Structures are given as structure tokens and as C-alpha cells.
What we know:
Elements lengths: L1 H10 L2 H19 L4 H9 L8 H26 L11 H9 L3 H35 L3 H11 L2 H5 L4 H15 L2 E2 L6 E2 L13 H19 L19 H6 L1 H16 L4 H16 L11 H17 L1 H6 L6 H12 L8 H4 L1 H30 L6 H20 L2 H19 L5 H23 L11 H31 L1
Antiparallel strand pairs: 1-2
Helix pairs in contact: 1-18, 2-4, 2-18, 3-4, 3-16, 4-5, 4-6, 4-14, 4-16, 4-18, 5-6, 5-14, 6-12, 6-14, 6-18, 7-21, 7-22, 9-21, 10-19, 10-20, 12-13, 12-14, 13-14, 19-20
Amino acid sequence: MDSILQALQTIATPSILFFMIAGTGAGIIIGAMPGLGSVLAITLALPLTFVLGPEASIMLLLGLYVGSVYGGSISAILINTPGTPQAAATLFDGYPMMKKGKGGLALGWSTTASLIGGLLSTLVLIAAAPLLARLGLKFGPVEYFALGLFALTCVISVANEDLLRGGAACFLGLLAATIGQDPLTGDLRLHFSSFELSAGIGLVPFLVGLFALSEVFWRVSERHAAVAADVPRSGFEFPAIRELGRRWKVLFKSSMIGTWTGILPGIGATAASMISYAEAKRTSPNRDKFGTGEPDGVIASEAANNAVTSGALVPTLSLGIPGDPITAVMLGALVIQGVTPGPRLFVENADLVTFIFVALFFVNIAMYVLGVLLCPVFSRILRMPEPLLLSAVVVLIAIGTFTVNYNPFDLVVALAAGLAGFLLRLGRFPLAPIVIGFVLGPMIEQSFRQGMILQDGNFLSFFSQPIALVLFVMTALFVGWPIYRGLRERRLRSNHG
């Protein structure tokens, strides 16, 4: 209790409050800019940690982290371009709501879900951080493979009932993920004698190109361009209390999915939002409306990806293993401050750990307040003439893509992904399964091969692991049930025909 009071006193100081507001606000702005993202935001702030104290540095970085993850939803909803990879699932229903004139409500749901997801995950961590860390330790290669395989069943839920096209799209994502070096042997694969491809394809240029550039190409290809006056204005609309009560289950479940996914190192918020979106669609009574502007889709994605922000800190702080690329940068910032994350951190630096958890609580509140204030500002870009808007999007894509690694080849990747995304959209192939396959592919491959080595090449022994067995059974059920339902409906139609 004393450590909590001390943390509250520290946060109440003017300098710490300033870094909280500045970090969160800057994070929202950077997150809303397509192609920039959380990693860039935190990396740019990293030099400041050399001159700031531990508390100020942590508050600044947490603000950038939470703010940027949320900020990606703003551009996803307003212009069908996820500002960050974590918001990829948000645009599936956020942008359709925008086109229906409900952009303000979509922003309201996104902001509210982000707040609830962040707060719930923080409360879980404050109460059970050591327990959650120990659970994460139980996952070995076999369990990671089973988890990744289960996550691929998301294809069934986001492929708009077209399993053939969804499966093909997922395969393309898995194939793209294999480009570059073999993770175990170091052999080059699918590099086509290109030195640049030997390092693989970056997630940022791939995702930005696939969604953002393909959207630009799609709009340019349309015979009639949208007129600025026809674009509905979008401010910020608070969701009704009654609607919040009616949707509490999807809010809670999505927050827990994000928390638990964040705890497992290497999964990340992008996969969490996809899994949460798929699960929400599978269990929702409005599943047929997903993809057409269903608020539950926005809620599921945003509650999950913001819950990851707290969950990802568990392996980072307790094990010294970054939960995602963002916390990897934050790990370096802690080391700069003389703090060594690991099992003994909770004993030797208990006050600092408490400060981090309490800071997360207040950063999420700051994110909500600043989100309410900044959303209407961002919505003004919709009143720009479409050629100017598309030009601005292309410029932001180019700047954001290039500044991640300062590699001109990333621009080539983004362009290729954009053209591929445009052609796939012409063929009515869903883009979401491509992202799922690309994000989960490396983890699935590496875990499978490591598991085979540990089990002496005996795949059947995978089923002897209790956690993996449960995940395998769930995967079989999730795959088998839609097939069974489709066959049953076909049989009923034939009988009545």
C-alpha cells in the first residue's frame, strides 16, 4: 500500500504529469499517421531517456506506447488506413461505419473500448502479475505451435464465409512470411537472388502497402471520385450507457484475450486484435453484420490491442523477454536507467514495478481524455478534396515506411504489396487472412521445428502436452463446426428442394 501511495505522489508532480500528457498526446498523433507507428514513436523518444529520470522516462514511453496503439484506430476508421499494424482489424467495421455516417460513433466505441481494455488489463496485472508470468513460462515450442495453429482459424471468421478464398489468402500471407533467412539453418528462401529480400519483408511496409496503398489504387480506379462535400463530418460521439451495458461481454472477453495474448512473448497486439475480432464474430448474434459496420468488431479489436500494452510488460519485466518489438525498445530504455528486468525485479525494484502499473492506469485515462479532444481534429481531413487527401496519404505512407529502417527497399515492398492488395481486391479475396498468415507464420514455423527437434521428430507426441492438446481440440472444433454447419444447411436445402 505504501508503494502505491508513493507512486501516486510521484505521478502528481508537475514534471511527471507533463511527460504523461506530452507522451500520450504525441503517441496518439504519431499512431494516427499511417505508416509511423508505436516502434518509431518510442525509438525517437529513446534519446530523451538519457537525460530524464527513471519515472519520467517510463511515463513518457508508456504514454507513447498506449497513445500510439490507440491512435492507429483513428486513421483506420476515418480513411480505411490503419495508422499502426495493431489497428488492422479495426478498419473491417470502423470504416464501414464511417461510410454510413457513423464515424463519430465508431471513434467513440474505439476510444471507450481502448480505455476499458487498458484499464482491465492493468487491474489484472496489478492483482496477479507474478502468477501470469509463471503461466507464460509454461509455454514451450509445442504450445506456441498449437496456439498459432488455433489462431489461424481466425481465417474462418474473417473470410466473409468464403473459405476457399480465405484459405488461399492466408496461404499467401504464410508464403510471404517465409521470404528471407531460414530461422534455424540460415539458408535463404524465396529471395530470387535479391540481396534486399534476404532479410525478409518488414511488417510495416507490407501492411501499409497492403491496406493503405491498395485503398489509394482502389479509389483512383473508381470512375467517380468522391466530392469533399459528400463526405460526412465526423466528430466524437459517446456510446450510450445502455449500449455499453449490452456489449459488456465482448468488452470483457476481448480485454482478457488481449491481456493473455500480450503475456505470451512474441505474439503482439496485431495478432491479439485479429484473434479477438474473430472470436467476437464467431460468438456474436450479429455475426452476419461483421464487415458492414458492426460496433462489436471495433470494440473487439480495440479492447484487445490496448489490453496487450499491459500484458506485454509481464514477460518484459519479470523475465527480461520483450513481449513485442515495442517493449523491446522499452527494455533498452530500462537498462539505460540502470534497471535490469528479470525475475528479481519484483523483489529488488518493487516500488518501480508498482509505479509502472499505477502509471499505466493513469496513462489510459489520459489517452481517453486526449482521444476525445483530438478525434474531431483528425476527422477534418475528410473535408479535404479526395485528390489532396490521397496525395497526403501517399506522402505519409512514404515517409512512415522509409523512416522505420531508412531503407529505400521498404518503399518497393510497400508498392508491391499495394499493387498485390489492389489485384486481390479486384478478385474479391479478403485481405485480413493475408495479415493473419504473415503475422503468425514465423512463430508457427519456428515453434513447429523446435518442437519436432525436442520430440525427436515425433509429431504425435505433440498431443501428449496438456495445454497443446486443449488448443488442438479447440482448433479442430473451430474448423469442423463451420464445415458441418454448411453441409447440414446444404442437406436441408436439398431435402426441401
